[in-house]
Amino acid sequence: MLRLNQLEITQGTFRLLADLSIPAGEKIAVIGASGGGKSTLLALIAGFIAPKSGQLIWQDNDITDLPPAKRPISMIFQDNNLFPHLTAAQNVGLGISPALRLTQEDHTKITSALDRVGLADMATRKPAALSGGQIARVALARLLVQGNTLVLLDEPFAALGPAMRAEMLDLVSELVSEIGATLLMVSHAPEDAKRIADQVVLVSDGIAHVPKRTKDLFENPPTAMREWIG
Amino acid sequence: MARRAFTISPLGLWGAASAALLLFLTLGTLLAVAMKAEFTQGLGRADISALCFTLTQAFFSALLSVAFAIPVARALARRQFWGRQILITLLGAPFILPVIVAVLGLLAVFGRNGLFNQTLAMFGIETVSIYGFSGVLLAHVFFNLPLATRLILQAWLAIPSERYRLAQSLGFHPNDVFRQIELPMLREVVPGIFAIVFLICTTSFAVALTLGGGPRATTLELAIYQALRSDFDPGKAALLSSIQFALCTLAALIAWYFTKQQSTAAGFDRVVQRTDVNTLPLRMIDASVIAFAAMFVILPLAMVVERGLSGILTLPSVVWVAALRSVVMALASSAVMLALVLPLALIAARRRKAWPEAVAYLSVSASPLVIGTGLFILLNPYFSPRDLALPITIFVNAAMSIPFALRALLPEVRAVEATWSPLADQLGMRGMARFRLMLLPRIRRPMGFALGLTAALSMGDLGVVALFADPDAGTLPLMIFRLMGAYRMEQAAGAALLLLMLSLTMFMGFDRGGRQNAAT
Questions:
Q1: Per the CB < 8 Å rule, is A69 touching B3?
Q2: Rounded to the nearest 5°, which phi and psi values hold at B233?
Q3: CB burial class (10 A; 0-12, 13-18, 19+) of residue B10?
Q4: Best of A80, A135, A142, A152 to disrupt the B interface by mutation (most B CBs within 10 Å)?
Q5: Residues B79-111: pLDDT tens digits?
Q6: Architecture of domain B10-38+52-515
Q7: Is the ipTM of this complex over 0.90?
Q8: Domain locations in chain A?
């Protein structure tokens, strides 16, 4: 279980409160109006910004003060997920060793991860020679070798068309289930949330609300949610 | 960011060492100079005339450079013609051109038996002399007209094309366009550019050494050199150095004041289509301005090639040895520069500190001869400065390149940090791994440029090396200077061509190296 224990974030005049729990193995969508603090919440969980007060607890361990890489977290950003000067395999390899010191066994792992996302023959290509969808797949392959139990997606695959994005979301959902991880995805598209999320955290009015079942929330949306969907 | 206790990181140590060395070279040597300066001795008549000459020539050099640069920049901004891009690139060449090479080229065009005087003689007009005040001005304009042109052109091209379209739809005459659109831009950028050229000319040494001299054309830098080298008077050299430093600092502050408000937004280098300037007289004016500027830059260079071709193959072996020494020293300077600038750029970008930039730009107001005098005073009691001439030259040249190198590198390092540090943090890339896998591959281009610039500047340096070096174990520029002094002009011309080729090769080699396979 991921516990956000009375967390408070302030950035200038902006303030966000979060006091909620996310059950392990669930797939959660974080939604809300832009500028409302969705991405800030994710950055806090990932360790890029420190809270003013409160604790972040994962499986009974306080991870509030850990640097990003020491947290059991894999993250996929909106863009810039692959280094352009490294090959697909090297980019995946960074998930195993940040200095790219890889053993034979590691290479086998990388190959099978790339194979799993359908890029077995693209290992030596650099991002410039890959399509947008393939780039997303390489990032997902890295997520597999990292093997972390918490997966964060910050408005992922924004550069892809609707069909391709849906395909990627399905793949993410499958992979997360395979490794038994918990997923938190920031999204500005209601259809993305409906597609893969079991539960939804609504961020509005400076508060990250307690997660609700996706189906319930969309069938009976609160005011803030209705304003957001339009 | 996780809260972290204050620790001394390897990067912090590296940056501190780099800053310490730069501070020693700039302020440390200044302190030595100030302690040694014999202020009570007062300024002699020669010293005052050196100060006056420095100020006068710098003022007129800046005035002429900027005055000519404005019409050239205007023509380049509003005309599209074949070779325009080549010409703009060529205008960048004087910056990396060894001074001694340019001087030989200018002598070939404007010297006693040069093209210009031959033409004058043909029409029975009295010939002009390139030595003294006019020669120093000519050389300074040769170096700074292209620089000023490029800077003004940038500002010109940054004017939004909508303003020109609005002017056209309102039926503006070209004069109205100038008054309403272009003059305000010029009023904003010209004082800063004037101040930059003035600053550059106040530290002029090699030009004054070769074309000036004597009581009426000696700059402070040249006077420092003579005080140390001919009169063996460190106290006098120190006094002059103090004045020189004060002058440079003042000039640098003025330049900084005028340039700080300017936005450095680079133009898109797109020529605005203008129908209002398509009249025949305006086209002829622009064409002749462009032709003049092109000739002014190209002719001396062409003459260096033409005069040097016959001499280059028969150069004595001492020249080749000097060339080899120069190449090795230029490479060493580049390496030292990189070792000094990288931690400064990283600390400035990653920790958002301002001091690395301040330290780097200190060497703008320090001149090589002042640094050299300080080092001489500090080292002389313990070592023979002559023995340390080459290492000193390597470090001084590296330090003098730091402001340019940091200017090229810092924006890129900042961009890399901003774009890629979340991913690198998330993956736990730290220390050397982060440096090797994240930073270096992404800053190859500006790094290649900075290395090439440093190599070319060091290759052509005729400053601190002249102060220290044993004439028989000197660099190629020093060798050319000696050949000129001995009136072995054919060998000097051959050696100058060799120096020109080596400088350009080194600059282009590094610059290309940075671009090639530059990770996309």
A1: no
A2: -120, 80
A3: exposed
A4: A80
A5: 888 888 889 888 888 888 999 999 999 999 988
A6: Orthogonal Bundle (1.10)
A7: no
A8: 82-147
